[in-house]
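User: quick one, fold this
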Amino acid sequence: MDRRWLAVNVCVAVWWHIYFGSGLVLGFEKIRKLLEAQSSRADLTRAQNMEEKVKIGRPTAEHGLEGDVGLWAVELKNVKKTYRTGPIEVPALRGVSLQIAPGEFLAIAGPSGSGKTTLLNIIGGLDRADTGEVWVERNNLQLLSSGELARMRLERLGFVFQAYNLLPVLTAMENAEFTLLLQGIPVEKRRETVQKLFLEIGLAGLENRRPAELSGGQQQRVAVARAMVTEPVLILADEPTANLDSATALSLLDVMEKLNRDHGTTFVFSTHDPQVMERSRRWIRLRDGQIASDAAHASHILPPL
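Assistant:
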């Protein structure tokens, strides 16, 4: 397998794992078939029904709804996570508790190894805490099955990664509509939704370009469009500006701030980038798996890390 096809399979495996919770890898012809054939909706429905589904956003007593958790987009209660390799234990999170209100634009900062990515993965249902409670949109993720978590990620969450994770053989339009495809949305509706979003974030006219024909900033905007296209309540962005120059990073932050303001979408970043922290309206600093500080700020002047 050459590098191009390896990249395709890796990207598809990542997204299939996120949205369907399995390690299935699709070939290029299957991707094209899914993009072009409306009959694929039935196949996708069968794939989504591989595990029991839950109506996300309408929790029942079995999902542990209690107290005022409905007030928060995200709430963590004494969350702990330790990674184990043989006899070696590496604590990643040591009793993290926090609350994130709907519509926040929040940065999680800290040195490498502080637990930023682990925290994002647990909030996004990509990893599970060892102990504690993880509430996202009134659902206790600790009590959801793998299939229920995959359903929530597909329908209610968006993900933006440092490496963009665009499929190199697909156009910008096809990459951005990928999650709508997985939801079984008809092609006409997918294209209409993506074109409207591309116009909003400055990608109009680039729909038919492949990732190699786009700049780094344009590729990350496509990734943001893919995350936003399903109208999620929460977007988790792991080091989204790390591969961008400062001017391009600021332009991308302008786009995400606009989406946050206009759509009310909650954004949570993990970052080393001072520009991201300066633009956030709240920042949480992690150190050694614990919250060292948590401050909302009106100004854009932050204490040094």
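User: anything notable?
Assistant: The chain has eleven helices and ten strands.
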